Amino acid sequence: MDVSIIVVNFNTMNLALKCIYSIYEQTSRYRFEVILWDNASSDGSQEAFLKIKNQYSELFLYLSDINYGFAKANNLATENARGRYILLLNPDTEILDGAIDKLVNFADSCNDPYIIGGSTFFSNGERNTTSCWSKPTRWSLFSMGIGLASLFRKSWLFNPESFAWWSWTHIREVDIVTGCFMLIPKKCWEKLKGFDLDFFMYGEDADLCFRAKEIGINSIIYPEATIIHHEGQSEPIQADKIIRLFEAKQQLFRKHYSTRFSRYGKRMLYIYAFSRMVVTVALGFMSDRYRVKSKTWKEVYNRLRKKKAV
């Protein structure tokens, strides 16, 4: 078995089915298995997956009655994986142009083991640059906090964590490959013991890449492997998603940075929420779109204030 494709689903039935169809349609060069894990979905996903199970070879289905979160579900799903490589794939993705074949072929051509990601696009064809990130720094957090990263999204100077400024025309090393489309040799995954279970959802991919770097396994992007990523479909309530992202970042700060940096990072996240609230409230007087966003950021800011007060 060349590659074990791990798909962890939570309430994204229709998108997950599209994802599975695209895997089988677009992957032919290498032998693969699909391990589909459902995290106690309530949208009919489990019933739908049972119906398609026998339509595809090497499709293994795990239906959980507990939502274990992204990190633990992936760890559980990989326990019986037989592939030389593990490919983590979000259920809200679609494979394009033989992307999995391309990724495995590239990995086989490398002399050293890597964590490898590809290019992601939105469903409208626009590039989605969230398949990789740079490590947070004091400057990147400051730029985010005071709004420079939002104002100058395609600037390497003011938005250095994002790769929105990059041409995406060549292979390059990155600090973080996103778990929506991440290929890793199974031996490396096992050596790292998978994801850190302190992370429930978000941040576990960054932590994995940081720990891999410490033992000499770098992360790279191979842009020729492309997918569609319908981002954020498993957690549609934006305030909840933002809070989870903030909590995951703080976990990363505590684990991989100094205490002083962690405090600084937490402060910048707080300032970022406040600045976004102020800006969206102001723009809300002119636009319904920003009026909706202002409600989200008010909720985020108030929830952060309550946590700060505790």
Helices and strands in order:
Layout lengths: L2 E7 L3 H14 L5 E8 L5 H8 L6 E6 L4 H9 L7 E5 L3 E4 L2 H11 L4 E8 L5 E2 L3 E2 L4 H8 L2 H4 L20 E3 L1 E2 L3 E5 H6 L12 H11 L3 E12 L8 H19 L2 H26 L3 H22 L1
Parallel strand pairs: 1-2, 1-4, 2-3, 6-12
Antiparallel strand pairs: 4-11, 5-12, 6-7, 8-10, 9-12
Helix pairs in contact: 1-2, 5-10, 9-10, 9-11, 10-11
Largest sheet: 5 strands, mixed
Q: Radius of gyration, Cα only, in angstroms?
A: 20 Å
The backbone outline, from C-alpha atoms, is globular
Order of helices and strands: EHEHEHEEHEEEHHEEEHHEHHH
Our count of helices gives 11
Strand order of the largest sheet: 3-2-1-4-11
Query: How far is the first residue's CA from the last residue's CA?
Result: 51 Å
Question: What is the helix content?
Answer: 40-55%
- Mean pLDDT across residues: 94
Main structural class: alpha/beta
What is the number of E strands? Answer: 12
* Poorly predicted runs: none
Percent range for β-strand residues: 15-25%
